[in-house]
Amino acid sequence: MKYILPLAPVPAPRPRVTKWGTYYPKTYKTFLADCVTLLAALHKGHSIIEPASVEIDFYIKRPQRLMRKTDPPGRVIHDRKPDIDNLTKSVLDALTKSGIVLDDSRIAQLTARKFYSEKGIRPRIEIIIQTLSGHNDPKTKDPPESPSSGPNP
Question: Can you tell me the distance from the alpha carbon of 91 to that of 39, in angstroms, rounded to the nearest whole number?
Answer without folding.
Answer: 10
